[in-house]
Design goal:
The protein is α/β, with parallel strands linked by helices. 32% of the residues lie in helices and 25% in strands. The strands form 5 sheets. A 7-stranded mixed beta sheet has the order 18-19-20-15-21-22-23, with helices on both faces. The longest helix is centred in the middle third of the chain and has 16 residues.
């Protein structure tokens, strides 16, 4: 068996933090290596070094036994290394083909050959089983389709090593299976894959071995077939986790409607939506991608204003025309797209944490009290275990999981009565997920009504007090005891034509 890559004693420091402390990993030709670790463990930093975005402060890299210094992204590509980043990096105003071949466009007579570029893009997309037009503008595609284009772009250079950083975070189960088929084809051609994911079922389905990092240090490597998820979690967090989901021992605080929707409707987005949420109740909203689950949440928050229907909060009829009126009525919305809708990436940790409720940090002259900003932010950094060298760090320098925690902190700070969480644990490690589940329960104890949307069906079943199943932009089933329901039953509701209440 040929070793294609060795990274030995890799070290990387940022101001106030050692991101990598002597990390070793190796990769065999035609194999898939999973790279596991909690948020902030150093996974993305290590891969940015391998892909040429960062320079290491120590250590060495060998490719096919030859020591190399990867100077930049272009040099990495020349060495046969390609990366799919956790956050989308496409140009929204360019076409699919233009993004796939950006900086490497086919040329004819000194000019970009658009016909050849579109033809080659179509051939690549067809080979990968991706049904997207090469002439479509990226900004018109769904987040999941944009992720598929990221994958196609990374593969277009025919790499020897491809790094996939949370590649399925925005994908449906069908699209995930397409990706797995792509990985199998890559393996058959001798291409090696480094696969970063927090989804254990994916690790066991598609990888050959697993390397684990913790707090910037290398913990060990095991063969996938010789380990269990419990063993991997123990390696990741340094302790055993007896329970993945904390116990919520109350269904609600008061048996009355905190939020009630009656016939909420917006043509093409959500249709005749009616349900209630009680104080302290966690209501799960589950459906496949494109089912309308996020659009329902956006309707409640005023992002997609309803055409028909009524909303009642504590029995009083309210009109929510936009997010501003939603917030005034005690509704908060943690969006699934933290990069574009949830954060000011160039802003600091403290600025992002307090931005949604500036009244808390203003004095009587309407000037910001910085000591109050610091106090609030430090409280959330501690409670959410946000890994940052400083509250003054810009959030674009933090890992995806820590960015997500800051989005949560921002909305927790306005102390909402109704909290909508859209994919709150996407891209977050198992230890951090547990912390967020506990925070949800703490908020519920205070009487907050929570609506949680997730692509992970086990998560919805195990954290919800009641569950609503969405299909074709309608609620087609209500499940009163999710923890006693099987995944198969839920999928039957999604594929069945008959609505159910169980």
């Amino acid at each position: 068996m040929t070793t294609i890559l060795k990274m030995n004693g890799i070290r990387k420091e940022f101001p106030g933090v050692v991101a990598l402390d002597g990390v070793d990993i190796s990769l065999e030709e035609g194999k898939v290596l999973a790279l596991l670790g909690e948020n902030g463990a150093g996974k993305s930093t290590l891969m940015k070094i391998l892909s040429g975005s960062y320079q290491p402060d120590g250590g060495s890299i060998e490719i096919f036994g030859k020591k190399v210094e990867i100077k930049n992204v272009t040099h990495a590509r020349e060495l046969g290394i390609s990366i799919i980043y956790q956050e989308l990096s496409l140009s929204p105003n360019m076409t699919v083909a233009e993004n796939i071949f950006a900086l490497y466009e086919p040329v004819k007579y000194g000019l970009i050959d658009d016909k050849a570029m579109n033809r080659q893009s179509q051939a690549l997309l067809d080979e990968l089983g991706i049904s997207i037009s090469p002439t479509a503008l990226v900004k018109e595609l769904s987040i999941s389709n944009q992720q598929m284009i990221e994958i196609a772009k990374a593969i277009s250079s025919d790499p020897k090593i491809i790094i996939m950083d949370e590649p399925t975070s925005a994908l449906s189960s069908k699209e995930t299976e397409i990706l797995f088929n792509i990985i199998r084809k890559l393996k058959s051609k001798g291409c090696s894959v480094i696969y970063i994911s927090h989804r254990m079922e994916e690790i066991f389905e598609i990888t050959d071995s697993v390397s684990v990092l913790r707090d910037g240090k290398y913990i060990g490597t095991v063969e996938t077939n010789d380990t269990t998820s419990d063993q991997l979690i123990t390696m990741m967090v340094g302790r055993s986790m007896d329970e993945i989901y904390p116990v919520k021992d109350f269904p609600y605080v008061r048996d009355e409607a905190l939020l009630e929707l009656k016939g909420y409707h917006l043509q093409g987005k959500y249709h005749n939506v009616s349900f209630t949420v009680r104080p302290g109740e966690i209501v799960g909203l589950y459906g496949l991608m494109g089912s309308g689950r996020t659009e329902i949440a956006q309707g409640i928050f005023g992002m997609l204003k309803k055409e028909q229907g009524e909303m009642f909060i504590n029995g009083k009829k309210v009109e929510v025309d936009n997010p501003s009126t939603a917030i005034k009525n005690g509704i908060a919305f943690v969006t699934e797209d933290r990069k574009h809708e949830g954060l000011v990436l160039s802003g600091s940790v403290y600025e992002n944490t307090t931005i949604a409720n500036l009244n808390k940090v203003l004095n009587k002259f309407k000037l910001i009290k910085h000591n109050k900003e610091v106090e609030i932010t430090k409280r959330h950094v501690e409670s959410l275990k946000i890994k940052t060298p400083s509250i003054y760090q810009t959030v674009n320098k933090l890992s995806g999981g820590n960015q997500q925690k800051i989005v949560l902190a921002k909305w927790f700070e306005i102390e909402p009565d109704i909290l909508i969480l859209d994919e709150p644990t996407r891209g977050i490690d198992v230890g951090a997920k547990f912390e967020i589940y506990k925070l949800m329960i703490e908020l519920a104890k205070k009487g907050v009504g929570i609506i949680m949307i997730s692509s992970e069906l086990p998560e919805v079943l195990n954290t919800s007090d009641r569950m609503l199943v969405v299909r074709d932009r309608e609620i087609v089933a209500e499940i009163k005891n999710p923890k006693e329901t099987t995944q198969e039953k839920v999928m039957n509701y999604i594929t069945s034509e008959k609505a159910s209440h169980v």
